[in-house]
Write a structure and sequence with these properties.
about 35% strand, 7 helices, Immunoglobulin-like, FAD/NAD(P)-binding domain, seven-stranded mixed beta sheet, 27 strands, alpha/beta
Amino acid sequence: MQKEVDVVVIGGGPAGLASAKGAGSKNTQVLILERGEELGGILQQCIHPGFGLLYFKEELTGPEYAQKWIEEIENMKNIEVWTKTMVLEVYPDKRVLAVNEKGLWEIKAKAVIFAMGCRERTQGNLTIPGTRPAGIFTAGTAQRLVNIEGYLPGEKILILGSGDIGLIMARRLKWEGAEVTGVVEKLPYPGGLTRNLVQCLEDYNIPLYLNHTVVEIKGEKRVEGVYVAPLDEKGDPILSEKKFFPCDTLLLSVGLIPENELSEMAEIPLDKRTGGPFVDQFLMTEKEGFFACGNVLLVNDLVDYVSSQGLLAGENAGRFINREISREKRIPVNINGNLRLVVPQYISYPLILPEITFYFRVLNPHEKSILYLKDVGKTLKIWKYPIVRPAEMLVVKIKSLLLENAENINFSLEEER
């Protein structure tokens, strides 16, 4: 079966919902393809508060935040939603192959927005010696078991990795009566937001072991315990100092990977630093007419950033269809100093947006840092930060006029001296 539409949005989570609204506001016909049974994505299992503080200026739970966006697109007659629809392939000519209960579909679009989100790293991504017993879960899987299915994954639990989902699940499992013996992190600093460290670990006296990792899993049918060892300066475990932690469950909170298999099918280049596509300030990829937003673009801290990116990508997809966007010239965005990644990676000219938002992650934690924006040796703007952490993104907005005559766009994060 065939269908033609202006904009196809792949993914019905926060990024997809916002991009559908953005594209729909530009008088385009939008089709959302969501593989789940309902819209909202991962938000439906995130029952804790803390969402929407930036975008809606109020504190919401995940389902409440999702519902606000669902209600907004429900009122737009030019947005169609297909749930329980799996996208099988995306072609470079903007054809999308998808399957659902009605059959196999070939959908022809004028623009495609990638909003597939990200997935968790699993035990298969790690090199932990030992047996492969039951009782090993990703933190997100445990979150779904507890919050949606109503099951407790274990009674005595150790968490490997200090990502935000792991920290939140430490508190959640404690509430449900489980014993959380600790959170183990290989880096010398935590991987989650400061508010989650305080509210989820410190408030519940759950220990955090920095510069440590799990070196062996014990158990046959079920996890019986794990060995945890400190790391030396090179990051290698000091096995002579390993300690045994009895537990029946090991949760993995060891990072997220943007879901870009469909992007690769469409022959879109990916940035190894972000795991997502290279984009310009329109969030358009290197292949014209393809846009990316949310965690498929880069792993975000806050859902508010995801929604802002989705709205921008959707609006610009509409502008692209209406031929308001051109790429007469492109300049790469360079980074130096304590910066690990930047989005967007390019600036396209002419500049038709009033302002440009840049997202950064840092390499190492530092106090009193200065972010410089320079062009051929001259400083255009500076920002000062009392502290920067790898777990917390830096987000800056600048007026497009500042880059109107730029020749070499360079951001550098340096320690204040």
